[in-house]
Design brief:
Helix content: 10-25%
Distance between the termini: 85 Å
Number of helices: 2
Shape: elongated
Oligomer: single chain
Largest sheet: 5 strands, antiparallel
Number of domains: 2
Structural class: alpha+beta
Order of helices and strands: HEEEEEHEEEEEEEEEEEE
CATH topology of the largest domain: Immunoglobulin-like
Length: 189
């Protein structure tokens, strides 16, 4: 009787273990790295195909994603956004640590294939503290336009990488989506 119970337990454990191995072989977790940074959510490898979280991938690539509920499909838009920082009429990408005087951000946007209601620009210091620079409502939805911030004072307090971000707000949404980043290096003088 005791042998029979042990045999049944061993059989059940073997079946359970085999099922777990089969399930693991059928789908495997995949680590996702974008520009050298491991993403919080990984992907899944299933039948030789890799499936990734779409929203995370779109955000990491600076793209805008819209869900079309009527057709049950996700639509991704990737506008081209080029940013330049200016001090007076001189563009810069590297600065000496400290006060730089009045600066402004020039942004050129093209290949915008969806309607937006606003744009916004921010700057973050090397420690991640973000400062709002300027936003503006957009009423003329053209696929190509320029946006230039007003001049503003900014002090590069620390040495390191500062991140200037350009955001879009989709028409009909309150959410700001970052679509471009520009790194500015602040160095010790």
């Amino acid at each position: 009787m005791k042998f029979r119970k042990i045999a049944i337990m061993l059989l059940l454990l073997s079946l359970w273990g085999g099922s777990m191995i089969f399930a693991d072989a059928a789908s495997q977790k995949v680590r996702v790295m974008i520009n050298g940074i491991e993403q919080d959510e990984g992907g899944v490898l299933l039948d030789g195909k890799t499936y990734l979280p779409l929203r995370q991938l779109a955000e990491a690539m600076g793209a805008v994603i819209r869900w079309d509920d009527n057709n049950k499909r996700a639509v991704i838009y990737k506008p081209n956004v080029h940013m330049f920082l200016y001090k007076g009429n001189t563009p810069f990408g590297v600065v000496d640590k400290g006060y730089q005087g009045k600066i402004k951000v020039f942004s050129q946007i093209d290949n915008l294939k969806t309607d937006i209601s606003g744009v916004k620009v921010t700057i973050s210091d090397p420690y991640g503290k973000e400062r709002f620079i300027q936003s503006e409502s957009v009423t003329n939805n053209s696929d190509t336009f320029w946006f230039v911030t007003d001049e503003f004072d900014y002090k590069f307090d620390a040495s390191g990488k500062y991140t200037v971000r350009f955001y879009l707000r989709l028409a009909g949404s309150d959410e700001w989506v970052p679509v471009s980043e520009k790194l500015i290096t602040s160095r010790n003088a």
